[in-house]
Design goal:
Blueprint (H helix, E strand, L loop, with lengths): L2 H10 L2 H13 L4 H14 L17 H5 L15 E2 L4 E8 L4 E5 L2 E4 H4 L4 H5 L5 E6 L7 E3 L4 E9 L8 H6 L9 E8 L2 E8 L6 E4 L3 E4 L7 E4 L6 E2 L4 E6 L3 E6 L5 E2 L8 E2 L4 E4 L4
Antiparallel strand pairs: 1-18, 2-5, 2-17, 3-4, 5-15, 6-14, 7-8, 7-12, 7-13, 8-9, 9-15, 10-11, 10-14, 16-18
Length: 283
C-alpha cells in the first residue's frame, strides 16, 4: 500500500475526539483491565521493562503511569558532549535550517515561523540555524530531557490537528509538524536561545512539562503563552523537562553558529537519551 493510501483515513477520522477518548482510558484506573492492556502493549511492541524503575506491570495503576514510567538509576549515562540526545527514539532528520525552512522529508519543508505559531520575531533567532527531528515510537521511554543546560523564558501551546507522526505520515502530509498541536519551550543558554518543541500526534492524550504540569487538555483552539522570569525555571543538562502521554516527536532548534552533529548520526538511526548529539565547535 502506498503512503498516500495509508494516510488517507487520517484526513477523514475525528482525530481530536479519538485522542480525547484514548486519553480518558489511559488515565483511568481499571485494575485487571489496565494490567491486561499494559501486558498486551509490552508484548506487542517489545518494551524492555528491565530498564524501568518499576519493571512489574502490576505496579502501574493506569496506562499513563506505565507509559510515562521512569528509568532505573544509571540506565542512561550522559555523554561528555555540548549537546546530548534528549530522548530515546529514532532520528527523523537533522541539519541546517535553510533561511526559515526546515526539511521534513523529501519534497516537504515547513517554516520555523509556522512551527512557533506565527511568531516571526521568535523564528528569526533560528534563521540559518540548526535543527533535529527525533521520533519516539510507542515502545520508547517517553520522558524528554534537556540536551544542555537552559533557563526557560517562554512557552507556547499552539493548537492544531493530530495526525500520526510515523515515517509514512511524515513523508506524506505537508507541513506535518507545523500542523499538529504542539508545545514550544523557549530556553536561553550561554550560547543563545534554543527551542524544544513537543509535537502532539494521534492518540496522544496530553503533553506535560515539569514546571507547568499537564499543558493539554484543555484544548481551547487558541494559542496560549506563558512568560517566565529570570531564574524561575533553570534546568541542568540531562534533567527531565517534560513528557508525552503516548508517543510523538521532539524538535530541537538551535541558533546559527558553529555546530557539528555526531558523525554516527544518520536518518532512521536508533538513538538513546544521553548519547552525544553535537558539539558547538566545528573543529
Amino acid at each position: 500500500m502506498s503512503d498516500r493510501l495509508a494516510v488517507l483515513p487520517q484526513y477523514l477520522l475525528p482525530k481530536c475526539a479519538l485522542s480525547t477518548l484514548a486519553g480518558k482510558f489511559a488515565s483511568a484506573r481499571l485494575g485487571g483491565l489496565t494490567r491486561a492492556a499494559i501486558r498486551g502493549f509490552v508484548a506487542h511492541y517489545g518494551v524492555d521493562m528491565a530498564e524501568a524503575a518499576q519493571p512489574d506491570v502490576a505496579g502501574y495503576a493506569s496506562f499513563n503511569d506505565f507509559f510515562t514510567r521512569a528509568l532505573r538509576p544509571g540506565a542512561r549515562p550522559l555523554a561528555p558532549a555540548d549537546l546530548i540526545c534528549p530522548v530515546d527514539g529514532a532520528i527523523s532528520r537533522f541539519g541546517p535550517i535553510e533561511q526559515d525552512q526546515i526539511l521534513q522529508a523529501k519534497g516537504h519543508a515547513y517554516s520555523v515561523t509556522a512551527l512557533v505559531g506565527g511568531d516571526a520575531a521568535l523564528a528569526a533567532h533560528f534563521a540559518n540555524g540548526h535543527y533535529a527531528t527525533l521520533y519516539l515510537s510507542p515502545r520508547d521511554y517517553h520522558r524528554v530531557h534537556m540536551p544542555c543546560a537552559g533557563e526557560l523564558v517562554h512557552m507556547l501551546h499552539v493548537p492544531g490537528t493530530l495526525f500520526s507522526v510515523n515515517p509514512a505520515t511524515t513523508r506524506t502530509v505537508p507541513g506535518l509538524f507545523a500542523r499538529n498541536e504542539r508545545v514550544v519551550c523557549c530556553f536561553e543558554s550561554a550560547h543563545g536561545p534554543w527551542l524544544l518543541v513537543l509535537v502532539g500526534a494521534a492518540i496522544v492524550g496530553s503533553m506535560a512539562t515539569v514546571w507547568h504540569g499537564q499543558v493539554n487538555p484543555p484544548r481551547t483552539g487558541r494559542l496560549r503563552q506563558w512568560d517566565y522570569a529570570r531564574g524561575q525555571v533553570s534546568l541542568r543538562q540531562g534533567e527531565e523537562m517534560g513528557r508525552f502521554l503516548l508517543g510523538s516527536t521532539v524538535l530541537l532548534l538551535l541558533p546559527p553558529g558553529p555546530l557539528r552533529f555526531d558523525p554516527h548520526w544518520a536518518p532512521a538511526r536508533p538513538i538513546r537519551l544521553g548519547e552525544a548529539m553535537a558539539q558547538r565547535s566545528a573543529h
